[in-house]
Amino acid sequence: MNTYNYFEDNWLRNMTNNNSLFTPEEGFLKGNLFSSLYSQYKNYQPMTLKATNEREKFFLELSWVAFAAHELNLYLDVHPNDTSMITLFNDYRKKEMDLSRKYEEKYGALTVMSENSNDNQFSWEEENWPWERDMNV
Amino acid sequence: MFKYCKKLQYPINIKKKDLRLARYLITQYGGSNGELTAALRYLNQRYTMPDNVGKALLTDIGTEELAHVEMISTMIYQLMKGATVEEIKAAGLDTFYAEHAKALYPTDANGVPFTVAYFATTGDALADISEDMAAEQKARAVYENLIDLTDDPDVIGPLLWLRQREIVHYTRFKELFEYYEKKLKKGENEIVNKKPINNLNNSINNNFFPNMPLDGNNFFF
């Protein structure tokens, strides 16, 4: 079985040279990519999310980059001329597209348009729906 | 258009059913400061934003709020899953059950059904965005109240996460407000509130707001 090696190569950390940003992983866990905006409630700590298998690892990484790209999207809406953030946004956006495609090839469609066209069957209904999940992450 | 992605923005995996908590949480689905109100507020206000900065931000945050509606709905669904009628009665959800059984239905914590009276659109960017900033702060406060009401880590985790989103959204709306305010000070107020200052022949503005008095007054200063 091909094991997916994004986890090993630490690209997530290398991408983030900007000190004001959390890494995509940390940002996703906290719900906030911008360290200067993060504000803790009482002494509650963010939930830790641990992948228990390859699929969950994959899914979690997809969630990290999707979140980072979305955070930068909102930031760029109001600061459209910030070139370093545009570069970072494009990195995460491409990573998200790449990870989505690879996840869907292996584990099933996330959108109806990404249905595997080689199949003769309609598998959109096979995957669980988000409110009755079979994953821990 | 909108496309559906079969994925929550942040995972919800509640293992322990808790009907009382479902009763409280539902307010962030169908209450005045809830996610559905937020989504509809921003997605209605976006059309009359003065330029693409406001249109983009309201579209993108409004879309994210739809993902939060799905998260809160999932939490309510999972908290009620497997509950017996006896348990539902004991938690005071019998009146809800009479109408909806265990189906989702947007109400506040007191069972008051969702209404669009919870939000406003004025066609005035600064007025609308001020409401949006307040809305994000109120939603943050409600999330804190809800966190205080539970000790289930599976519930606290997503609530903390959603609370943090309110803080980010508030910041972006504040930046948008300041951006439009600055434009106004620079004399670009026809861009901001679509009211001409001294140009009575401004055909675009006349067409947009034929009944608006062209009195040359600066509305804000």
Give a quick rundown of the structure.
The complex is a heterodimer of chains A (137) and B (221). By secondary structure, chain A is mainly alpha-helical. Chain A has helices at residues 11-15, 24-30, 54-78, 83-107.
Overview of this protein structure:
The complex is a heterodimer of chains A (137) and B (221). By secondary structure, chain A is mostly helical. In chain A, 45% of the residues lie in helices and 0% in strands. Chain A starts with 10 loop residues before the first helix and ends in a 30-residue tail after the last helix. Chain B contains 10 helices and no strands. Chain A binds chain B through residues 28, 30-32, 34, 37-39, 41, 44, 46-47, 49, 59, 62-63, 67, 70-71, 73-75, 77-80, 109-113, 127, 129-131, 133, 135-137, and chain B through 3-13, 53, 56-57, 60-61, 64, 70, 73-74, 77-78, 144, 147, 153, 156-158, 160-165, 167-169, 171-172, 175-176, 179.
| Largest beta-sheet details of chain B | none
Strand content of chain B: under 5%
Instruction: Return the structural class of chain A.
Output: mainly alpha
Distance between the termini of chain A: 22 Å
Structural class of chain B: mainly alpha
Strand content of chain A: under 5%
Q: Tell me the number of helical segments of chain A per DSSP (H or I, 4 or more residues long).
A: 4
Secondary-structure element order of chain B, N to C: HHHHHHHHHH
Helix content of chain A: 40-55%
Unreliable spans of chain B are 196-221
Q: Return the average pLDDT of chain A rounded to an integer.
A: 86
Instruction: Name the pair of protein chains with the most residues at their interface, and give those residue counts.
Output: A-B, 39 and 42 residues
